[in-house]
Amino acid sequence: MSVEPLTLLLVTFLPLAVVTTAMWIFDDGLRTSWGGAWSLAARVWLLGFGVPSEVTGGALAASGTVDSYLFTLMPSGVLVGAVWVSWHSGCRTAQMGPLPAVWGGYALVLAVAVVLLATTASNASARVSLLPALLLPWLINLIVFGVATLVHAPESRQGAGARLLLRRVRAWTRVDEVVAGSFVWAALRGAAVTMVALVGAAAIGLTVSVLGNWMSIVAVYESLHGGWTGVIVMSLIQLLYLPNLVVWSIGWIGGAGIAIGTGSLASPFGTLVAPMPAVPVLGAIPSGGSWQIMLLILPILAGFAGAWFALRPLAAELVGGWHGWLVAAASALGQAVVIWLVLTVLATLASGALGPGRLQDVGVPIWRMIIPAGFVALGAVVAATVLVLGRPALAEAANR
Q: Is the pTM of this model over 0.85?
């Protein structure tokens, strides 16, 4: 049990420590203490769980502009990796003993590791608040681990097993006996399919944009004059922010846009940005306008696909006329509401402060995530309408 938190650190923290140590060896030339490299790795790891860093001096400070500033833009790759490791750790240890003992052993060892990192993350150039540094990574990983042990615990164990819990919830709520219950579940299934479609379209769009603007990205790399170590380190840092970039891509193709600084916005309708920080991947942001407006059809198609997949098996339960359309449309709109909530959470996690001044506002404007959700709603309602109009044929096919 006690090995699992060490696996978490091995996968998520050790690579960061290796990179910062390489920077200390090749860029710093061993002139300073290795403690600075360790502290930087600890701050990046904590930042991945939402613990902000206050930059106060050193090479990262904005000399001559402000005395300090907050850095809150989470490297979501750290969070995704930690959640994945904690989940698989819970799956492996679910049957190793009584769940309270499993949880207690994991929580204790993880707490010791988090205390070590949180208390050594601050130095002369940057610092973190101790309370969130102690609580956030510990709670997030412990919750994911605990849920995984519940899901994979054998049903024979009293009080364990998520399947047993689900059956009890259904018995209490009698959701299967409610006429609209199947359409509520359809909204959730449709939202899941829509999210998969949006993420896939965003990932493809991000790849195409990077390849299409490769020379601009290379030009930023060359302007940094960091040598081969600088290129490697900058590339690895950008990989940590890959999930953020995918969320930004969803915001862009959905019409919400991307803000690189207060008052700026890049979207399919056009781009209005001030001089951007020297981050190579930002050179891949499309200019917008012209034919790129046509990409707004992608969230519409994603909403259509989700509603069609979820509602088509319920064709036999649909009735004709306005009543049947209202039920199907309500399920489709429920799907869009779920998508809006998910996108809002993702935009919150993928946005934050990247530097001083106007760079305190970087990412997808959270309130604008209603725009891609609206396009999803449009596609979902169109799918529901088509299904209601074709109800007789679909119902006959479903009953075969």
A: yes
